[in-house]
Amino acid sequence: MNYVNNATLIRRDLMIKLAKLIMAGNIDDINRIPLDMFPKRSKSVRCCIHKDRAVIKYRLMALMGHRVEEETDELKTLSAYANDAMDRDEIENPILTVIDEACSACVQTSYFVTNACQGCMARPCMMNCKKNAIKMVNGQAKIDPELCVNCGMCLKECPYHAIIYMPVPCEEACPVGAITKDDDGKEQIDYDKCTFCGKCMRECPFGAIMERSQLVDVLKLLLSEQKMVAMIAPAIVGQFSAELEKIVSALKTLGFDHVIEVALGADMTAEHEAAEFIERMEKNEKFMTTSCCPAYTESVKKHFPELSEYVSDTPTPMHYTGQIAMEKYPDAKRVFIGPCVAKRNEAIEDDFVDYVLTIEELGSLFVAADIDVQKCDDVEIEHVPSREGRGFPASGGVTNALKHGVDGKVEVQDYLIDGLTKKSLRELKKMSKSGCDCNFVEVMACEGGCISGPDVLSNPKVANKMLAKLLERS
């Protein structure tokens, strides 16, 4: 998966520009952003600067929380959309949107013979194609798309590696087949299938799939008299090349009145999950899976209901942390900050969470507010969670916390599903039917865990090192 690319940098730049306008009280100037980014006679990225400007407009609409597909008036200005966002009180589903203008309508997934083909005498591609889809044309192999079934045998057999696989990146990344082409060849998301894992968004080379951001909603409240609580996911560690105490200080400088680590909620999740695991094993159940990853639980609900009896009934760390925040600060709005797209969907259905900001959005707010996290003073962290709770974002962290809670009362035979893919979902389905050589399965939608989520800023390897340092002193 891509962590930094040009589409990502453009998105972050737009977040910063949007935040600066709101902070300065000049939101009506948003109309100028597409023109400033692609001025007259400038070099275009697409066919012309007019399409480039249109794509920037739709990106900004998504960053203001609007669904691009619902546009009915192309003459409606960005400032009008901005004022609509400033007046909004509620967050609605779906949390993703597809920018039609940005989608390049990639060719259908296929195998393609390149000019590296040597037209060899052996012709293994032809000899091993069971559909007779390959012919020799002008001394080179050519695949007939009408006959090809995309089995990939020709690619495996070619001794010159002259045949390549051409995927549709977003469709290839989706583990549940929730994104497909419409009649015009543009991608569309089936929200009855979508699990909001964010893989399609990250993999699209054109940045055509975006989240409907809540940046405007949160920033509007930060600039008001409303009390605000930031609930920071453990994955925030390592995202700003600074100690956790400095990140907390930066959040308070930004305008949050209180900061609570979601690792406190993770401690509660681990405690309840350990008790539930012991109870299930005493009843001789086959196995139990984790429930803290919303993309996984959404996959079970929509695609593999036969797995539901094995999923833990324990709520997520975000839920428990929201509950803590509501009890401690009943007059404050609660904002979860993390690396996950699916948390937006979970939060809409959770009364303990008001808004969700991604780590990427938080970074943009810091830049817009001219806050250098590394230069912030250290502040004392109230209510320090356990080492196990802070270890949740890395793959294997939930298992370690559960083992700590079980404390040897029951033998834990653990297994890790490190990243949701078509293959790993089939593996889970097989477990539900025939069992497995384990009794506890940790499932993470993102390979490497939440610290590798779709909305992180840092390379996961770097973030993992920072997390390890925090755990050493926890």
How would you describe this structure to a colleague?
The protein is α/β, with parallel strands linked by helices and 474 residues long. 39% of the residues lie in helices and 12% in strands. It has helices at 6-24, 33-37, 49-63, 78-87, 124-127, 153-157, 169-173, 199-203, 215-222, 244-254, 263-282, 294-303, 317-328, 342-348, 359-368, 387-390, 397-406, 422-434, 460-472, and strands at 96-98, 110-113, 134-137, 140-143, 163-166, 179-181, 187-189, 209-211, 228-232, 258-261, 288-289, 333-338, 355-358, 414-418, 440-444.
Which residue ranges are poorly predicted, with pLDDT under 50 across at least 5 consecutive positions? Answer: none
Q: Span from first to last CA? A: 31 Å
Q: How many E strands?
A: 15
Principal-axes geometry comes out as: globular
Beta fraction of the residues? 5-15%
Spatially, the strands of the biggest sheet line up as 10-9-12-13
Structural class: alpha/beta
The major sheet is characterized as: 4 strands, parallel
Q: If helices are DSSP runs of H or I spanning 4 or more residues, what is the number of helices?
A: 19
CA-based gyration radius: 24 Å
Average pLDDT confidence is: 95
Q: Helix amount, in percent? A: 25-40%
Outline of the structure:
The chain has helices at 6-24, 33-37, 49-63, 78-87, 124-127, 153-157, 169-173, 199-203, 215-222, 244-254, 263-282, 294-303, 317-328, 342-348, 359-368, 387-390, 397-406, 422-434, 460-472; strands at residues 96-98, 110-113, 134-137, 140-143, 163-166, 179-181, 187-189, 209-211, 228-232, 258-261, 288-289, 333-338, 355-358, 414-418, 440-444. It is of the alpha/beta class.
